[in-house]
Design a protein that fits this description.
Structural class: alpha/beta
CATH superfamily: HUPs
Distance between the termini: 49 Å
CATH architecture: 3-Layer(aba) Sandwich
Largest sheet: 5 strands, parallel
CATH class: Alpha Beta
Shape: globular
Helix content: 25-40%
CATH topology: Rossmann fold
Length: about 230
């Protein structure tokens, strides 16, 4: 019997690969995206346009505004850094974002009768966000099984699936290509121009371009003209 799974889906490279992995693993993916006031709304347009074609049974867009609390270059007027990935937690970190996302996903999973949640976090080629680490995921999974009616009543055990967490960006891309992912239907840039073209210089763009180069492939998305 096919099992349902809630998949956090931003429209980006990692989450799209995660969606493909869930589907290939025999799950019915229920994609969940978030319009949280982020400046890079091009990813949401990509998610809305492509969720079903990427394999989602249903696509739910949740709308709330983290700009009201700010604290991140993605949810305020703070400048998005373009100098490369550093060793410190960058200003593109959004306070409590994955905790909020996973909480919504957990709620939907319980309503759907699902005990499986997929999230495309990565602990290798990433920007140093604390809510992408394995110990964080383990802690949330433990909480999920303490905080839900379905788990407490013994109907099942929640599992937070992180199939990308120990992969490099190049390995993620190779896996996605093996599964037939069209990366031209993804968007990763934190600071796209008004036309939605990727900047090529933010942390997310740099990691993406590095991944395609190391995978021996060409990124199919369009970047601003000065990048060629």
């Amino acid at each position: 019997m096919t099992k349902k799974a809630v998949v956090l889906y931003s429209g980006g490279l990692d989450s799209t690969t995660c969606l493909a992995i869930a589907k290939a693993g025999g799950y019915e993916p229920y994609a969940m995206s978030f319009a949280y006031g982020q400046r890079h709304k091009a990813e949401l347009r990509m998610a809305e346009k492509n969720a079903k074609s990427m394999g989602a049974v249903e696509h739910l867009m949740v709308d709330f505004d983290l700009r009201r609390i700010g604290g991140s270059a993605l949810t305020s007027d703070m400048e998005v850094p373009k100098s490369g990935v550093g060793s410190d937690i960058p200003v593109t970190y959004v306070p409590a974002r994955n905790t909020i996302f996973l909480s919504f996903a957990l709620g939907w999973a319980e309503v759907l009768g699902s005990f499986d949640v997929f999230i495309g976090v990565n602990a290798l080629d990433y920007s140093g966000y604390p809510d992408c680490r394995p110990e964080y995921i383990a802690a949330f999974e433990n909480m999920a099984n303490l905080a839900t009616k379905a788990a407490v009543e013994g109907l099942g055990k929640y599992v937070i699936h992180t199939p990308l967490i120990h992969l490099t960006k190049a390995e993620i891309i190779k896996k996605g290509l093996e599964l037939g992912v069209d990366y031209g239907k993804t968007h990763s840039c934190y600071d796209p121009n008004p036309e939605g073209l990727a900047c090529g210089r933010c942390d997310s763009c740099r990691l993406r371009l590095k991944g395609f180069a190391e995978a021996g492939s060409v990124d199919p998305v369009k970047y601003v003209k000065e990048l060629g």
